From TrEMBL:
This is Hydroxyacylglutathione hydrolase. The keyword Methyltransferase does not apply. SMART domains: Lactamase_B. Pfam families: Lactamase_B. It comes from Caenispirillum salinarum AK4. Residues 12-175 form the Metallo-beta-lactamase domain. Keywords: Acetylation, Dioxygenase, Hydrolase, Iron, Metal-binding, Oxidoreductase, Transit peptide. GO terms for biological process: glutathione metabolic process; hydrogen sulfide metabolic process. InterPro entries: Metallo-B-lactamas, Mito_Persulfide_Diox, POD-like_MBL-fold, RibonucZ/Hydroxyglut_hydro. Belongs to the metallo-beta-lactamase superfamily. Glyoxalase II family. GO terms for molecular function: hydrolase activity; metal ion binding; sulfur dioxygenase activity.
Length: 253
C-alpha cells in the first residue's frame, strides 16, 4: 500500500492519499479545495491514478475539492450514503465498504461531531489504520455543538466502535493543531483528556458543554458548498476558486 499524509495549514486539515501498488488506483480522504494542485502533483509523482475522493463528513471549516478533482481526473466522489448527496457517485455505509484496487475501506458510522460522520478502517500488510475524521483527534475530539452533533452520540461512537478496535491500530485524525501526525487506539484510551477510559459520560458532557469555541470562519460557505461536494462557484469567494486552465488532463501544468 502507498500512503501519504498531507496537510493544509489554514484549517489544519489532514488529507490522506492511499494507493494500491498492484493496480495504481488511489483514493484521497477529505481533500481540500486549496490543495488541488499539490494533491494532483503528488498523485502524478507516485505514478497513481485517482479513482475516488472519500469524505468522512460534511466539513464546516474548509471546502472539499471532490467535484473539482472529478472534473479534472474523472475520479468518482464517495461519501457516507446517509448524507444522500445528489452530487456523490457512491454512498458508503457499514454494509457497503469501498474497494480501491486490493485495499478495502471499512466504514464505521460514528455520529456525534455530525450525525452522519463515518470513520474508515483499512487493514493491510499487518498494519491496521483508522481514519477518524473529526470523531477522534490526538488527545481530543471534534466539537458537538452544530450540524446535529451530540456529546452522548460521540461518547458512544468512540467508546463502542473506535476503542474496540485492536490496541495497536494507528489512528489518523482529520485535524491536528500542534503538528502531531498519528496516535494509536491504546494511547487514546489511556490518555485522551476528553474520552479516555478514566472519563465518564457525565465528565464528557461537562467538558463539551464548556469548550466555548467560536464557530468556524468558513462555516456559512463551507457547509452548503460541501453539500454540493465542493461544486460551489456561486457560493465560495473568488479567492477560494481554482481555474481549470491550470490543468491538462488532470495533471498540473
Amino acid at each position: 500500500m502507498i500512503f501519504r499524509q498531507l496537510f493544509e495549514p489554514e484549517s489544519s486539515t489532514y488529507t490522506y492519499l492511499v494507493g494500491c501498488r498492484e493496480t495504481g488506483d488511489a483514493v484521497l480522504i477529505d481533500p481540500v479545495m486549496e490543495t488541488v494542485e499539490r494533491d494532483l502533483a503528488e498523485i502524478q509523482r507516485l505514478g497513481l491514478r485517482l479513482a475516488y475522493t472519500l469524505e468522512t463528513h460534511i466539513h464546516a471549516d474548509h471546502v472539499t475539492s471532490a467535484c473539482r478533482l472529478r472534473t479534472l481526473t474523472g475520479c468518482q466522489v464517495a461519501c457516507p450514503a446517509m448524507e444522500d448527496l445528489p452530487c456523490a457517485d457512491i454512498g458508503i455505509a457499514e454494509d457497503r465498504p469501498l474497494a480501491v484496487g486490493g485495499i478495502v475501506f471499512r466504514a464505521l458510522h460514528t455520529p456525534g461531531h455530525t450525525d452522519t460522520h463515518h470513520c474508515y478502517v483499512v487493514g493491510r500488510e499487518d498494519i491496521s489504520r483508522v481514519f477518524t475524521g473529526d470523531a477522534l483527534l490526538i488527545d481530543g475530539c471534534g466539537r458537538t455543538d452544530f450540524q446535529n452533533g451530540d456529546p452522548d452520540d460521540l461518547f458512544r461512537s468512540v467508546r463502542e466502535k473506535l476503542f474496540t478496535l485492536p490496541d495497536d491500530t494507528l489512528v489518523y485524525p482529520g485535524h491536528d493543531y500542534q503538528h502531531r501526525h498519528v496516535t494509536t487506539i491504546l494511547q487514546e484510551r489511556e490518555r485522551n483528556p476528553r474520552l479516555g477510559d478514566d472519563k465518564s459520560r457525565d465528565d464528557f458532557r461537562e467538558i463539551m458543554a464548556n469548550l466555548d469555541l467560536p464557530y468556524p470562519k468558513k462555516i456559512n460557505a463551507a457547509v452548503p458548498a460541501n453539500r454540493r461536494c465542493g461544486d460551489c462557484r456561486d457560493q465560495v469567494p473568488e479567492a477560494h476558486r481554482l481555474s481549470d486552465e491550470k490543468f491538462v488532463q488532470g495533471v498540473p501544468s
